[in-house]
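Record type: monomer structure entry
Structure origin: computed from sequence
Chain ID: A
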Amino acid sequence: MSLKNLLPKNKFTRVHLLIGAVTVFTIGFYSIEQAMWGGTPARNMVSSETNLPTKFDPNSGLNVKWKAELGSQTYGNPVIIGGKIFVGTNNQSLRNPKHGGDRGVMMAFQEADGKFLWQHANPKLASGRVNDWPQQGVCSSPFVENNRLYYVSNRCELVCLDTEGFLDSENDGPFTSETDKSEIDADIIWKLDMMGELDVFPHNLATCSPLVVGDLVFTVTGNGVDESHIHIPSPLAPSFIAVNKHTGKLVWEDASPSDKILHGQWSNPAYGVINGVPQIIFPGGDGWLRAFEPETGKLIWQFDCNPKDAVWILGGAGTRNNLIATPVIHDNKVYIAVGQDPEHGEGIGHLWAIDATKKGDITESGLVWHRGNKDFNRSISTVAIHDGLLYAADLSGFLYCLNAQTGEHYWTYDTYAAIWGSPYVADGKVYIGDEDGDIAVLKTGKQKELLYEVNMESAVYTTPVAKNGVLYVTNRSQLFALQVK
């Protein structure tokens, strides 16, 4: 089986290119342009963009092309494609008086100048913070393919939108019952209510950044515990699903964590062809990483990302951790760190390099190298791998440079603040943000060299991303476009 089995059938040759943070598939004379969290389905936080700014300052305006107002809390990463930027936030920067109050919002902006275009504003769930935490907005980073956008809303819905919204005055289907059709409103193609239709019970918030491969959309549902943090209301509900991207209909589901879910499920899937075998990687709420056949959902391998003696204790006092970081596929290996809800604080974490060419339970046979105990703390960050070097961050505020093949440690940089986002490698630089609002710019390589550090005026919970020579950074409430002037 190869990638062509998951792409539209065509007699012409396919070419796969990576342009900055946008993936392009050429199938005959038809081009499929994609943009997503991590740039490619492998989710490696590396870009081929060049001429990006090393120095910038929102206070003085140094190398600031433009900035746009978001809500008051922003955790979703911007995705740039087709002259537009899409980012999840909350409703504190009210754009439509008809859609007031606390909502989760997916916003669209114009790439050239940051002009607001349209939004999808979702009311909060009536059940409150157990399923839909107040003011958190939309934490999902969308997947965009040509003129279709896929994301997970705060209402635990997998949603497909038209990237033009109602700016084009057309109501695309099959969903055509929108009540708001002004030019700043979203045009819904379809949506799947994972709570209503699949009995999913999201803990605190559904946050997954979905992934499209061929005709399938893959997402983690967010199924988790209730307010007691002990009882799992829906242990048989799916934790991971594959959905037809055209119709929103369920194709297959997996409930592997079942009654072993520790807390919630807030990670994202990755996809790659490993040693000739297509694999969709699912980070489970029980701390296990699983790989499935994309078309069928058949299990290929699984790996326990916690030591055998690790114990889960409510409130974060234990040594067993969740998978909140996104797995990265590189050189037939999968890399992932473990962590917990940041409210649980710091603790011992683990960073794993896994041989993904094996089958079955590969917890022992698939281990390539491991960094943990006192050498790595809890993390919710995704790694970046470039030129044989792996850059990883932990919640304690440390950025590490390691040998991707062996795990050998080269250097550590201390940001002195919690890191929620991920290191981003582009143009010979590593960009990393922290909870104090600082962005640090370091030189790539085995020798640690800090090039620049600046405060972005409020906390940076997201990951920088580059496109067309522009670096995009979001703080809690603003989106900055940064370009060398």
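Annotation 1: The radius of gyration is 21 Å.
Annotation 2: Residues 104 and 137 are 4 Å apart (CA to CA).
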